[in-house]
């Protein structure tokens, strides 16, 4: 797949028909899920992780970076990629594009959450973002070296769909589970996501290995990911509840209401010392966690020059280990408490970054990938459930989780921008890793300040 990426003739009508039938079939099957059990609702909720995680773990961490590296190689763009009157390093531009998408989501998330809480229709917003993201994945099928900005735009839009829907998806956690259930349910969601992603990874890997045109195989994988996401999401949409709308919402200014509610949440956060310190910790270590997840494969491509098939194998290793990591951290949190386990996990992340700075061989990268998988699922799952335990009881869960998601998105913007800026300035990704180490260290510092029994006190 080096150099120019060719497109073979492909039966668009046949593929579209088959994909439409698949979506309809999944929609029909979802209607057979029983409606009278909260456990069934929880399982349907977790299935959205199965549906949308194929974007974050198949596209952003594997196939898109490999394909993007090929179509934006120095063979095709010897002087870099020109955009807005400036020339960029290919991965630098990708980092900036994603960061901009996260910034847009961080800005609009409070307004959308206010609408969802007021009108009781968070599921509808979750659906809109889901379909925008899934459709954007499908549009990546038309991305090649002649339209790089087109590809980056839909890559960004897919990310906005993914993370926009996560605002409303995460807010359901407090609605459909008790305090005692949240660690396990959050871990179950991530586990579903990793299992689904491994299956989708293997489908994509099989296409890459069996098709002569590797670029075409990856483009077909983009298309399948979009259909998988929208299709399996029907299981969740069929069962997740909506609240009744609040009275007199027709004349509400939702832009003002959204940021006012965000400020109300912040004022309440300041009154809860443990929650405030946890969010500060979460803010800093999220700069590192999310950036590593988004640039790890780029590092393997540019620094270690790993071939595409090895990178796909690496991504599968990360996800298989991540399944065990999410379950392990859930079990450990029951024994030692959420905060202690999070501290341990952040220490491991510091070790990952320090090791990443010095690695030089392919085997080192595989070992590091396994360690990333172990801590990746655990820290995401446990962070989400810890926040849901520390926040006060409220009916405005969308607003509270909007605050959580805005915190995370701003952190990602800073993390990605820092990583891309340092690479562009110094010409090496290794130097960018130093910033990630500092972010994790700050996160650990604030975690140490959180009382170790804080989650039990809020139970």
Describe this structure in words.
With 459 residues, this protein is an all-alpha fold. The protein has a single domain, classed as MFS general substrate transporter like domains (Growth Hormone, Chain: A, Up-down Bundle). The protein has 15 helices and 2 strands.
Please describe the topology of this protein:
Layout lengths: L11 H19 L7 H34 L9 E3 L2 E3 L1 H30 L2 H18 L8 H29 L5 H29 L3 H24 L16 H18 L1 H30 L5 H29 L1 H21 L3 H29 L6 H30 L2 H21 L4 H4 L2
Antiparallel strand pairs: 1-2
CATH architecture label: Up-down Bundle
Show unreliable segments. 2-36
Sequence of secondary-structure elements: HHEEHHHHHHHHHHHHH
Kindly report how far apart the N and C termini lie.
53 Å
What can be said about this structure in brief?
With 459 residues, the protein is mainly α.
Which structural traits does this protein have?
single chain; mainly alpha; globular; two-stranded antiparallel sheet; Growth Hormone, Chain: A; 459 residues
